[in-house]
Amino acid sequence: MHAIVSITHRVTGNAMAFGAVMLFLWWLIAAATGPAAYATFLAVATGWFGILVGVGFTWVFFQHMCSGIRHLIMDTGQGYDLGTSRTTAALTIVGSVLLTVATWAAIYFHKGI
């Protein structure tokens, strides 16, 4: 399990570095181009596919954050024994899913989708 979390940490870091930056650039270019381009961006971003991508990037962020906290704790010399390592690896996955669900529940109930 801890190998999966370690690999996932690298993959989510790259997803944020490349994927999220591309979405940000699309938004920025659409905003600078004009109302029609921005309307197209908003239509995609608020449609089912845009929400799916948003949920995915939210999980990517929280997974990377939880894994980073795990690595920070391990940098202090703690959590290297096999049982603790497996437990914290599982907690990063569970925590990231729960944080993603909580975030999107707050968005859904506060604003409505």
Topology:
Blueprint: H1 2-33, H2 35-46, H3 48-75, H4 82-111
Helix pairs in contact: 1-2, 1-3, 1-4, 2-3, 3-4
CATH topology: 3 helical TM bundles of succinate and fumarate reductases
Coarse structural class = mainly alpha
Question: Could you tell me the strand content as a percent range?
Answer: under 5%
Major beta-sheet overview: none
Shape descriptor: elongated
- Can you tell me the CATH superfamily? Fumarate reductase/succinate dehydrogenase, transmembrane subunit
CATH architecture verdict:
Up-down Bundle
Q: In DSSP terms, counting alpha (H) and pi (I) runs of 4 or more, how many helices?
A: 4
Give the count of structural domains: 1
Q: CATH first level: which class?
A: Mainly Alpha
C-alpha end-to-end distance:
35 Å
Gyration radius over CA? 17 Å
DSSP strand tally: 0
**How much helix, percentage-wise, in residues?**
over 70%
H/E topology pattern = HHHH
In the predicted model, the low-confidence regions spanning at least 5 consecutive residues are: none
Averaged pLDDT: 93
